[in-house]
Amino acid sequence: MDQSRINQILEKISTVQVAVYGDFCLDSYWVMDDRTSEVSIETGLQALAVARHYYTPGGAGNVVANLAALKPAGIRVIGAVGDDMQGRELTAQLQQLGADTSAFIIQKERFNTYSYLKRLVDGKEEPRIDFGVYNERSVDTDKQLVAALEKALQECDALIFNQQVTGSITNASFIDDVNALFNKYPDKIVMLDSRHFNDSFRNTYLKCNDREIASLNGLNVTPDENVPVSDVKGYGAEVFNRYRKPVFVTCGERGIIAFDNEGYHEVPGIQLKGKLDTVGAGDTAISAITLCLAAGLSPAEAALFGNFAAAVTVQKLFTTGTATGEEIAIVAKDPDYIYNADLAENERAAVYYPETEFEICVPEILDKLGHIRYAVFDHDGTISSLRQGWEEIMEPVMMKSILGEQYDTIDAGTFHKVQAECKAFIHKTTGIQTIYQMEGLVNLVREFGFVPEDQILDKFQYKEIYNDGLMEMVNKRMEKLAKGELGQEDYTLKGAVEFLKQLKERGVTMYLASGTDADDVRNEAEMLGYADLFDGGIYGALRDYTKFSKKMVIEKIIRDNNLQGKELAVFGDGPDEIREGRRAGGISVGITSNEVQRFGHNPAKRPRLVRAGAQLLIPDFSQHKKLISLLFQESENYAEA
């Protein structure tokens, strides 16, 4: 979705009047810091000190905040609060967002404003303290709410009906009265999002998650269970056919699936490299989707826009975030989609090409084969194993950079916490340029706070430290190669060089593209004896890192040669090149290489390659004759000749 289309959507949204009914809550955040706390003289107990505190609208209030971020013409809130300080704070904050709170009913008896107190200790959330769990909404309050709902249905373009709190609807008559209203205004956009009453309302659009759509089909699903996307498609279609109103199912990192008269529209999740906080992502999605529908967009495009919006908020930590149009545009520009998330996590579901070790991740790829004229290869872990073990060098560099002078003395618990963070970061960023990894390291050093700000190095300095350690290892291996103590076959994947030669024989123009520095890539390819096979060129990271990326190389190949996607194949063991090959419409072949053995399958690589979009997975090139036969749709006898 390009910037111009996003601008058009935002302009349409600016004319929309939307109402929100729901359980309006106040999220309270207390950042705890006991360094200066004291023992109470009166009780003798240790006091807990709050360093700072802040408050944001939660529940349906977060829906309002998300709506406000997209700047519709008007927002009306319909709900109940208590006669308490939380209710007054919540009302004031909603008014600051520009919402009309005239239908905010204050119930003075048996009702406390829903509020969730979240204490943060060392960046982690302690057990929550909840207010309002014993509320009982009165019949009079319900009547006022129903009247406000009817007025909204008459005057607004859309209504979001949001229910999240257990027991928030206490009178069955309220459900009957609301259904009568929805029946009276059947053409109005009413978006239902309810944790406990999805099957109690009629004549509504529906936004739910994968577990809720399964429950609506009679299944008992545990809260932490992921329902397979293939099943979600069936469940969503069944619910749409039952009520004949659009259905939107959010599937976490697996994206959103919309159902309407045209069938289903699947929007894949987006791969995000940083820390994530999924709290409130559903509120962001429903807000964006509803505004899009009210602005006249199709369910398919509304789901796409909502997915981008949710990808913004999950990157905002320790707050129920919102997504502005500008932020959505950034995420929507060349997003890194997650493919086949269910398959990635379940190797038991793998399907192999007959008599091979080749996993077919996308069956449709078989119809595209037979036309390859150009090929892009990653280097390390795909062809060469000279740099095998780079992770074991990067990890201690990161650890020492983050912990600084405390590296040798920090307690074991903190040490292992930092170590786990480093391992996760390395896993997520495998295959990208080293400089971008070092950019992430700078952020981690600053985030952990063990190193004073004036002692934090820049990304180039951290890269130099890492490269020094890495090249010490690589140079020792190169010396053995130069002396003839070890040969090409000791530092290349099984069958890789022979496979390159067979591609060359078939007239395929080949390119080598690595996140390693360009001079080092060329030198290593020459030492290993196959640099001359890459007649398209050998590319690597440059000092000005903005002038090289695998994406740039692939786009240049397609542009210069006027290629169709099926004429380009991309081979690699990292998600970066696989993702770019898939984005370009090419054939993405993932290598799940065991770099220590130089043959065989490394199961740790499989999930990230599948998620990046690999259509075909191979462990190595030992079956290169069968691979050539498959890729070029030749008989195996021809491949062997």
Which class do the helix and strand fractions yield?
alpha/beta
The percentage of residues in β strands lies in 15-25%
Q: What's the end-to-end separation, in Å?
A: 48 Å
Helical stretch count? 22
**What is the residue-mean pLDDT, rounded to a whole number?**
92
Unreliable stretches covering 5 or more consecutive residues: none
Relative helix content:
40-55%
The main pleated sheet reads as:
9 strands, mixed
For the biggest β-sheet, the strand order reads 5-4-1-9-10-11-12-13-14
In angstroms, what is the radius of gyration?
28 Å
The number of E-state strands comes to 21
Question: Which geometry do the CA atoms define?
Answer: globular
GO molecular function, one term: kinase activity
Protein name: RfaE bifunctional protein kinase chain/domain
Keywords: Kinase, Transferase
Organism: Dyadobacter fermentans
Describe the structure.
The chain is built from 22 helices and 21 strands. By secondary structure, the protein is an alpha/beta fold. The strands form three sheets. The protein has a nine-stranded mixed sheet, with helices on both faces. Strands 15-21-20-19-16-17-18 form a seven-stranded mixed sheet, with helices on both faces. Helix 19 links the parallel strand 19 and strand 20. Helix 14 crosses helix 15. The longest helix is centred in the C-terminal third of the chain and has 24 residues. The radius of gyration is 28 Å and the shape is globular. The mean pLDDT is about 90.
